[in-house]
Design brief:
The protein has about 450 residues and is of the alpha+beta class. The protein has one domain: Outer membrane efflux proteins (OEP), CATH 1.20.1600.10. Helix content is about 60%, strand content about 15%. The chain has eight helices and eight strands. The strands form three sheets. The protein has a four-stranded antiparallel sheet with strand order 2-5-7-8.
Length: about 450
């Protein structure tokens, strides 16, 4: 049964892909940042911000529009005029004004001269893009954190599989020893049967660990946006803890804080935009057009058809002065101020949470280091006890129960060591995040 579990692991992947893709942590992170939907959506938000800036800027540029229409008047409105106008005193005469057909084409140019709300929006547009850029950076950091955690989970599952393989080899040795003693009449058949049961239980446990490896690999592939059917392999590298340089959280401005500060800045711009409603606005308006009137459809006809055309033009300034709107603007300003105060409270709470995360990560690192040292000693001691017990069993000085117990003790010590190393690696990730240094996971330093 040697290497049985490892063989089953590779056999289970044949149905998906013949050529596994080898991934180290930086490659997994890079793949996720390129293919994961969250990262792509964050990049699209930045492009959206550029379009929003262009939209706001367009409101400050000249606006040119054109219009045209044709109207048929089957009944012309008549006005009653005094007859003196026509040399007929004492009589009122009904006169129809206009023609049955009228048509006009008009072009209008509008240029904003002063609009405080627009100017405020132009200033806020830059902050909006910076907000989306920070949000994209935060999204990348969150992706890096999740990928690193999932990556280390795969290593833990694979290490557990290696532990099972080691225990399987030890149990096979025990079965061989008991079998030899039984065949020579120095051991009971029940002892041989019990050792076989222990071996079979270990093989069944190995299948469960195999499933755990497959699940953890699938979780990693989903986390980085890789097709689930693609087989992957992780290169051999140490899973031991790395002593990080001592770096205090003080003086480090996390992306979350930068994002909240930028959000606070945007809320202040929103307040200023509401206050801008108190200011008057002014715009230049210029019109030029053609008017055609006649008894037939004007387009394409001239005076020979009874259609008369004339052009018209107008230039003016439109000034709008807010006087009273029932206090609506003042209410909006108050609401904006409340949102600003809420954002400030969020900023304070986030700073406190980050300090807590940093302290907890440091404590977890220290505890995990201590646990790793203890478990390493336990593993070494359990191996020595197993060797002594095997020798004693061969000499008849130890029972089968003693041998199986020390094998279980060794398995538990190895698994505890693997779990302690995983806890340390996860704490490393949390410490790097609290220090704003998650990008160091994109190289081979850890």
């Amino acid at each position: 049964m040697k290497n049985l579990l490892i063989g089953l692991l590779f056999t289970s992947g044949i149905a998906f892909a013949q050529d596994p893709v080898e991934l180290n942590l930086p490659e997994a992170v890079a793949f996720a940042l390129e293919h994961k939907a969250e990262a792509e959506k964050a990049r699209l938000d930045i492009r959206k911000a550029d379009a929003q800036i262009e939209e706001v800027r367009a409101n400050a540029l000249p606006n040119l529009s054109g219009s045209a229409n044709a109207t048929y008047n089957p009944l012309l409105q008549e006005n009653v005029l005094p007859g003196e106008i026509f040399g007929m005193p004492g009589q009122d005469i009904a006169v129809a004004f206009g023609k049955e057909w009228t048509s006009n084409a008009n072009a209008q140019l509008t240029q904003t001269l002063f609009n405080q709300h627009l100017f405020t929006g132009l200033k806020a547009a830059k902050s909006t893009k910076e907000f989306y850029q920070l949000n994209a950076q935060l999204t990348n950091e969150e992706i890096i954190e999740r990928v690193a955690n999932a990556y280390y989970q795969v290593y833990q599952a694979q290490q557990m599989l290696e532990n099972v393989q080691t225990n399987l080899e030890l149990t096979e040795q025990t079965v061989e020893i008991v079998q030899g003693l039984f065949e020579n009449g120095l051991a009971k058949k029940i002892d041989y049967d019990r050792s076989k049961v222990a071996l079979n239980n270990l093989v069944a446990n190995g299948q469960q660990v195999l499933n755990s490896v497959a699940l953890s690999e699938n979780a990693l592939k989903f986390m980085i946006g890789m097709p689930i059917g693609q087989q992957i392999s992780l290169p051999e590298q140490t899973f031991d803890p790395v002593i990080l340089p001592e770096t205090s959280i003080g003086g480090i401005e996390r992306t979350e804080l930068q994002l909240l500060n930028k959000q606070l800045e945007l809320l202040n711009w929103q307040k200023k935009a509401s206050q801008a409603e108190y200011y008057p606005s002014a715009a230049l308006i210029a019109n030029y057009g053609w008017l055609g009137q006649g008894d037939v459809f004007p387009a394409g006809n001239g005076e020979d058809k009874g259609v008369y055309w004339s052009d018209l033009a107008a230039v003016g300034v439109n000034i709008s002065i807010p006087i009273f709107n029932g206090g609506a603007t003042r209410s909006r300003v108050k609401q904006n101020q409340i949102e600003i105060e809420k954002a400030r409270e969020d900023l304070k709470e986030t700073k406190l949470a980050m300090e807590l995360a940093y302290v907890n990560a440091v404590a977890q690192l220290e505890n995990s280091l201590l646990t790793i040292k203890i478990q390493e000693e336990n593993v070494a001691l359990a191996r020595e006890v197993l060797e002594d017990t095997q020798n004693n069993y061969g000499l008849g000085l130890a029972s089968l129960n003693d041998m199986l117990d020390v094998e279980r003790d060794l398995a538990a010590a190895m698994n505890n060591l693997t779990n302690a190393r995983l806890e340390y690696k996860l704490a490393e990730v949390q410490l790097l995040r609290s220090q704003g240094q998650l990008e160091t996971l994109t190289n081979n330093t850890l």
